[in-house]
Design goal:
The protein has about 650 residues and is an alpha+beta fold. The protein is built from 22 helices and 22 strands. Helix 10 packs parallel to helix 13 and helix 18 packs across helix 20. It binds adenosine-5'-diphosphate and magnesium ion. Adenosine-5'-diphosphate binds next to helix 2. The site of magnesium ion has 4 residues, from helix 2.
């Protein structure tokens, strides 16, 4: 008989160290984790037995058994589930199999853990990270100085023993086990003897594991005792809503979603009719770290007539609802089709559309009744839900109504409906501006004219906005339009400042006419100087404070989208249409340049003057800087800037 010793994957070693030394609160959850794994193992076996009934014939009652041994100071969690073979043991218990656990460790060495060299801080970080990800099996090392796993995979004759003290190494050797299943034997540390007390164990199981669908039994401690089942042992979703407490829902969520936060919303329904199914769905309160990972699939568990089928049934929920967790149990799907066939089944499609509507309905209720609470949801999952606006044509309007936005005119979150209700007389367009953050969008010079007229602009700060906006086009016959686009139509809108401006215009009109001519000369001079670096130069309707800004022409790529595509290397080598440079005729700098243009102008000839050319490029570079873009030519820019400073000094 040989004992093989293996080193843990480096991350596991680090993780175990933290688990064993830094975690002081809530150690009892180790039991919940081990019972949860035992129950998962039974679910997996039941699924395999659908096609290989012989696997369970000798012992068909799946269950979890807890054994307390005061003398040996061990607590053992046994199951007659699917078991593990040697490869499983090395592969799963020796490496960080779960991506969640992997992220946990990355979190420890990442930003969250940086600058936190004091032990107390480290502990806080570890606890908060465990709160986010959980460490599953490894949590046994919070209470144990040695863990043994004796296991035999269903359908095999060889059992194996895995042993570790959680310090860098684990050993694997052949072992004896009468039948399939797994025993996890925790050798309790000195300060963890409380887990040998029957009452304590009973309490923990009732608190955290009551929802487990199979019996969790306590083996007799004394010879004369009987074995006792500690939990209700009926799958939680099959029970009546009124018999389920909030805590039970919460613990079920922890188990089913492998999550450690609390659910933000719980949706439990029994649907009967043409289609019969039960759904127990949860919307988490925290955003999982891999929400935007391309491979991330929905993670609602599919059961058929209480038999677990799969964790990732494609098509059970649309991908823009991939943050939803929980369980769906169908009466109408056949048990004998493969997981792969499941996703093409028309019944799944019908259940999916029922679930989707249900989720929308609940979100809508929340948005109406508890807007503040809904805002928390929106901040967490809004960017994902918005993917549905362009992916799911049939539900587009429903999702658009659920969507919330920041605005240039108010604080908090508003809906498109709120926006439309507050539109100014003469305004028939929904204006928006895109940017990386609300602050960046608000700082954009393009908003100046809108602000002056008190015309509200929606701030679109999620990458996904660039995709649904052009596709949706209108809401209640009002077109969406970027505030950075060509011909601003602000003149038509009776904004707050419009009346004053009209009065002022009347009195000024005559005296300002020559200014207008000068500005026209300047526009012509700038166009000549900049050539194909710009698409056009023109006076701005939208600027009040800044001298210049860049805008995209109608029909050209939105500037923020262009930046986004560049970041993602989608536009390599492609020639982009140049922007329009808008100048603010009311700005002192533009006024002075216009005077200069007039001085240099000769009838019948183009204005070409080195100072005006430098000024033209300085204006363009300034506008680019305001957009967060690099100047055209850094050396030329520095030379011109120095030149201007010399002249100014
Ligand atoms: P998770 O349960 O989220 O997958 P854990 O750390 O709790 O993560 O468990 C890691 C893996 O170890 C499980 O996914 C499973 O493959 C295996 N495992 C743990 N306990 C058992 C068990 N009692 N029977 C069979 N496999 C188990
Ligand atoms: Mg687990």
């Amino acid at each position: 008989m040989t004992v093989e010793t293996h080193a843990f994957q480096a991350e596991v070693g680090k993780l175990l160290d933290i688990v064993a030394h830094s975690l002081y609160s809530q150690k009892e959850i180790f039991l919940r984790e081990l019972i949860s794994n035992a129950s998962d193992a039974c679910d997996k076996l039941r699924y395999r037995a659908l096609t290989e009934p012989a696997l369970v014939e000798d012992d068909p009652e799946l269950k979890v058994t807890l054994r307390l041994d005061k003398k040996a100071k061990t607590i053992t969690v046994s199951d007659n589930g699917v078991g593990m073979d040697k490869d499983d043991l090395t592969g799963i218990l020796g490496t960080i199999a779960r991506s969640g656990t992997q992220a946990f460790v990355e979190g420890l060495s990442g930003d969250a853990a940086k600058d936190k060299d004091k032990d107390k801080d480290k502990e806080d970080v570890a606890v908060s990270l465990i709160g986010q990800f959980g460490v599953g099996f490894y949590s046994a090392f919070m209470v144990a100085d040695r863990v043994e796993v004796v296991t035999r995979k269903a359908g095999t004759n060889q059992a194996w023993k895995w042993t570790s003290d959680g310090r860098g190494e684990f050993a694997i050797e052949p072992a004896e086990r009468a039948a399939r299943g797994t025993d996890v034997i925790t050798h309790l540390k000195k300060d963890a003897k409380e887990y040998l007390e029957t009452e304590r164990i009973e309490h923990i199981v009732r608190t955290y594991s009551d929802h487990i669908g199979i019996p969790v039994a306590l083996a007799p401690v004394k010879k004369e005792d009987d074995e006792r089942v500690l939990n209700t042992a009926s799958a939680l979703w099959t029970r009546a809503k009124k018999d389920i407490t909030e805590d039970q829902y919460k613990e079920f969520y922890h188990h089913a979603a492998h999550a450690f936060d609390d659910p933000w919303m719980t949706i439990h329904n029994q649907v009967e009719g043409v289609l019969s199914y039960t759904n127990l769905l949860f919307i988490p309160s925290m955003r999982p770290y891999d929400l935007f990972h391309p491979d991330r699939a929905a993670s609602v568990k599919l059961y058929v007539k209480k038999v677990y089928i799969t964790d990732n049934c494609e098509g059970l929920l649309p991908s823009y609802l991939r943050f939803v967790k929980g369980v769906v149990d169908s009466e109408d799907l056949p048990l004998n089709i493969s997981r792969e066939m499941m996703q093409h089944n028309p019944v799944v499609a019908k259940i999916s559309s029922g679930l989707t509507k249900r989720v929308f309905g609940e979100l809508k209720k929340s948005a109406e009744k508890k807007p503040d609470d809904y805002a928390r949801f929106w901040e967490t999952f809004g960017p994902v839900l918005k993917e549905g606006i362009y992916e799911d044509h049939a539900n587009r309007d429903r999702i658009l109504e659920l969507a919330r936005f920041k605005s240039s005119a108010r604080s908090g979150w508003i809906s498109v409906k709120d926006y439309v209700n507050a539109m100014k007389p003469g305004q028939d367009t929904i204006y928006y501006i895109t940017g990386d953050t609300a602050e960046a969008a608000l700082a954009s010079p393009q908003l100046e004219g809108f602000r002056a007229k008190e015309v509200e602009v929606l701030l679109m700060t999620d990458p996904v906005d660039e995709f649904w906006l052009p596709q949706v086009g209108v809401y209640e016959e009002k077109a969406f339009k970027s505030a950075t686009r060509g011909g601003a139509d602000l003149a038509k809108i009776d904004g707050a400042a419009a009346d004053e401006k009209a009065d002022a215009d009347e009195t000024k009109e005559k005296t300002e006419a020559p200014d207008d001519d000068r500005t026209d000369l300047l526009v012509a001079a700038l166009k000549l100087a900049l050539g194909d670096k710009v698409k056009d130069v023109r006076r701005s309707e939208r600027l009040t404070d800044s001298a210049v800004c860049l805008v995209a022409d109608e029909g050209d790529l939105d500037m923020n989208l262009e930046r986004l595509l560049k970041q993602h290397k989608q536009l390599d080598g492609q020639d982009l249409s140049p922007r329009i440079l808008e100048i603010n005729a009311g700005h002192a700098l533009i006024g002075k340049l216009a005077v200069l243009a007039q001085e240099k102008a000769k009838p019948g000839e183009d204005i070409s003057d080195p100072l005006l050319t430098d000024a033209a490029f300085m204006l363009l570079d300034q506008a680019r800087i305001l957009e967060g873009e690099p100047v055209l030519n850094a050396q030329a820019f520095a030379r011109r800037l120095s030149q201007l400073m010399v002249e100014g000094l």
